Amino acid sequence: MDSSPIKFGTDGWRAIVGADYTVANVRLLTQAVAQYWLAAHPAEAERGFVVAYDTRYNAEMFAAAAAEVLAGNGIPVALTAVPTPTPVFSHAIVNRQAGGGITLTASHNPFDYQGYKVRSGYGGATPPEELAEIETILDDLHSRDVRALSLAQAQQQGLCEQFDPAPAYLAHIGRLLDLEGLRAWDGTLVVDAMYGAGRDWFSNILQGGSLLVYDIHNERNPMFPGLHNPEPIPGNLYNLFGIVRQLGAQLGLANDGDADRLGACDENGEFLNQLTVISLLALYLLEVRGQRGPLVKTFTSSTMLNRLGEIFDVPVHETPVGFKYVAPKMLETNALLGGEESGGYAFRGHVPERDGILAGLFLLDYVVQSGRTPTELVERLFDKVGPHFYDRLDLDFPPEERAPITARMHTHAPTKLAASEVVESRTQDGFHYTLQGGAWVCVRFSGTEPIMRIYAEAGSDEQVQALIQAARALAGV
Q: How far apart, in Å, are the Cα atoms of 191 and each of 59, 167, 312, 399, 410?
């Protein structure tokens, strides 16, 4: 290819369907993946790949294209029979002892996008240096280099089978949680599947007892009506908030398009931000379950984790944004919990991959076991670590403005923001400023779409908003 439009971002390749995202480009990228695995991981390639897909338009077609190219290169394929959450796909890689996997999903992006995620044999994100090697191979490929078998041919030659990954995942979840205890709880849970691959999963796991699970946006609809995009953030969750209040439910949960992210609200229909949720999950594992182990966070995640690390005497490791950094660090340190600001959380004893289903079940279990409301759990958390408030501002910008914005940020390094002294500045994968007293603000470009994000965490909501506006003025957007 003279100039490949395919580049791996924070988590895989994303592009608009019919523009850069085409069957031809999916085939080319899969050819590069196949060649890389055959050269760098031949034993893993021999064990085969799992291929899955989400609920977007023609997702099955793109998954079939990827499976046909893998089979054409002699790599056995296990293709999911139905749209599958990314964490279920990742678990299937490990459960089947496959050598890797590809899932066709654009996760939380708007309806006109589709995506492509590559996973290694441990079920987690393939490391950045390996993705860079795949990109290098891709740059030298042409359509004539693609080797493919039709699905029918691949099945006849024993190189492709369809399978259902749900039973093995459900059995595994049952070993991690007391599901009978959750089912017996006399409460109401509202779940927003956001029309994605996570539809019916909570209902199927929790049915059969006193617990009432009320589903919304639970059908497949690739247009994601009523949502800007299938991302579990406040602007997309008004229906969830309202129904929690209407039903008097104890908890509301939401998954993104491929169910690897979790959003949540309390019993009052108030959003529990992602930094609060990861800190609640850490406190649940450390205090309720009595487990110990390192915590892994990205640099846009909460400093509450650092404080919990001090209280419970466990190390806290920080990585750049993206599970392609979090997963290897979790494996290296045998971490108890890994997570990032986007609402993606992974757990020891599972796969080193974001799992919005398991994270939601753990949060529900915290409510059930503690006998406290989510509001009371947040109060308990703040009693331990001090009050922490957080917000994020997403700003669209013309892609050609990225370089000028970056240059402006480098040139005008601040010594103060919102009347607070900057005590530390970092410019890896964004512009991160720590302020006197522990508050912080970060300006960072999305790795999957033309959006600039400004994140801030501080001891009051007023300071959070002041820091976001100060950082926005600094960026000039």
A: 24, 21, 32, 36, 43
> Residues 452, 456, 460, CA angle at the centre, nearest 5°?
150
CA 190 vs CA 202, 252, 287: distances in Å: 10, 5, 26
Residues with Cβ within 8 Å of residue 430, at least 6 apart in sequence: 299, 300, 321, 442, 443, 444, 445
Which residues neighbour 459 within 8 Å (Cβ) at sequence distance 6 or greater? 386, 387, 388, 389, 437, 438, 439
Q: CA of 45: how far to CAs of 94, 97, 197, in Å?
A: 14, 11, 27
| Low-confidence winner among 154-163, 227-236, 423-432 (lowest mean pLDDT) | 423-432
Instruction: Map out the domains of the chain with their CATH numbers.
Output: 13-168 (3.40.120.10), 177-385 (3.40.120.10), 389-475 (3.30.310.50)
Q: What percent of the chain has pLDDT over 90?
A: 88
Closest CA to 89 of 75, 105, 74: 105
pLDDT tens digits, residue range 95-133? 999 999 999 999 999 999 999 999 999 999 998 899 999
The C-alpha atoms of residue 200 and residue 24 are separated, in whole angstroms, by 33
Q: Is the dihedral of CA 354, 358, 360, 365 positive or negative?
A: negative
Residues 6+ apart with CB under 8 A from 19: none
Please tell me the distance from the alpha carbon of residue 380 to that of residue 391, in angstroms, as a whole number: 21
Give the separation between CA 404 and CA 340, rounded to whole angstroms.
28
List, in order, residues 6 or more apart from 298 with CB less than 8 Å away. Answer: 318, 319, 320, 321, 322, 325, 326, 339, 340, 341
Cβ distance 245 to 268 under 8 Å?
Answer: yes
State how far the Cα of 120 lies from the Cα of 89, in Å rounded to an integer: 12
The rounded distance, in Å, linking the Cα atoms of 348 and 151 is 36
CA-closest candidate to residue 408, choices 473, 466, 468:
473
Task: Tell me the per-residue pLDDT of 268-321, one tens digit each, with 9 for 90 and over.
Answer: 999 999 999 999 999 999 999 999 999 999 989 999 999 999 999 999 999 988
Question: What's the pLDDT score for residue 5?
Answer: 82
Alpha helices in 423-477 (DSSP H): 461-475
pLDDT in tens, 288-299: 999 999 999 998
- Which helix (H) or strand (E) segment is 36 a member of? helix 23-40
Q: Is the pTM of this model over 0.90?
A: yes
DSSP state of 258: T
